[in-house]
């Protein structure tokens, strides 16, 4: 069954007449197409009997190389309205009573759809395309696994190069270079030394690595349209006072979350398990973010592993487990792995241990 066929099955179950997607992750997942996105309206509309594009004329020839779906093209001299009306008529979408809009599309694109169907009930993609994207197939798993191993290699390269006197940016440069050497596109590289590690989303900068610094290293790259994401810890020589005890608490929180993650469990149960370990150790106020997020075409996508999430976890879902403790002015510790949920629990995609890496020199 193709992904469009799977989407139509969900649309039938939920009595959705029309799904409209803009350029972005939903469209890429559904069709493999990644068209240029600008202010010109570009939409894929799917009904039970038709799937076609509202396509700017500038994009037609290039896009045709990547899809056999029909185009309803328009030029800057006439605008999109007539082409969109034609698309709705041909697809049967002009009679839609229930529509799903891509929540990531431009507001003016959404307004174009809603303006043409003012009486239709509107929802976003959470229970249609978004729900389908959460469970990865074997091909997606293979790509994600390869990406995870690429991040392992980039992390090892950084550790091999690190030394006192380098800046955070110097370390990030090594990460970027390693990803590029492997054919991956570097996406992010948080390097937080010393007190900067207490900022969960620290902006890597010119802070110099000093003896005794604990260093948070959160990195990710992309290959074949999917991403990696991993966080490990390093210390420059001797660890700061109290560091190892806190590292052990975070590791136990990771293990508790791994144990809680099972098909049929609501996502908040995984967050609850990690948070309980940290709270029971007296550091609850210093765990300031969710336990995890889904990952695939986007670095952050559903399911989100939060204290409030009622999402029921299913086999094939891919998400991070990344509890942390952040002590202002001292250090931060986050340990992150991406997992795919199997029938008996999570499989970690990375093969790099979460053990503390001690950097000598």
Summary tags:
single chain, 361 residues, alpha+beta, Creatine Amidinohydrolase, Chain A, domain 1, Creatine Amidinohydrolase, 2 domains, six-stranded mixed sheet, five-stranded mixed sheet, 10 helices, 18 strands, 34% helix, 24% strand
Structure write-up:
The chain is of the alpha+beta class and 361 residues long. It folds into 2 domains: 3-132, Creatinase/prolidase N-terminal domain (Creatine Amidinohydrolase, Chain A, domain 1); 138-359, Creatine Amidinohydrolase. Helices cover 34% and strands 24% of the residues. The strands form 5 sheets. The protein has a 6-stranded mixed β-sheet with strand order 4-3-2-1-5-6. A hairpin with a 4-residue loop joins strand 2 (43-46) and strand 3 (51-56). The termini are far apart. The mean pLDDT is 97.
SSE layout:
Elements: H1 3-14, E1 18-21, H2 25-31, E2 43-46, E3 51-56, H3 57-64, E4 71-74, H4 81-91, E5 98-101, H5 107-116, E6 121-123, H6 129-134, H7 138-161, H8 168-181, E7 185-193, E8 214-223, E9 226-227, E10 230-236, H9 243-260, H10 267-280, E11 292-294, E12 301-305, E13 318-321, E14 324-327, E15 331-334, E16 337-342, E17 345-348, E18 357-359
Parallel strand pairs: 1-5, 3-4, 5-6, 10-18
Antiparallel strand pairs: 1-2, 2-3, 7-8, 8-9, 8-10, 11-12, 13-16, 14-15, 16-17
Overall pLDDT, averaged? 97
CATH superfamily name of the largest domain?
Creatinase/methionine aminopeptidase superfamily
Order of helices and strands: HEHEEHEHEHEHHHEEEEHHEEEEEEEE
Q: What is the number of helices?
A: 10
CATH fold node name of the largest domain = Creatine Amidinohydrolase
What is the CA–CA distance across the termini?
A: 56 Å
Shape: elongated
What is the share of helical residues? 25-40%
Estimate nothing, just give the exact number of structural domains. 2
Low-confidence stretches: none
Count of individual beta strands: 18
Structural class by helix and strand composition:
alpha+beta
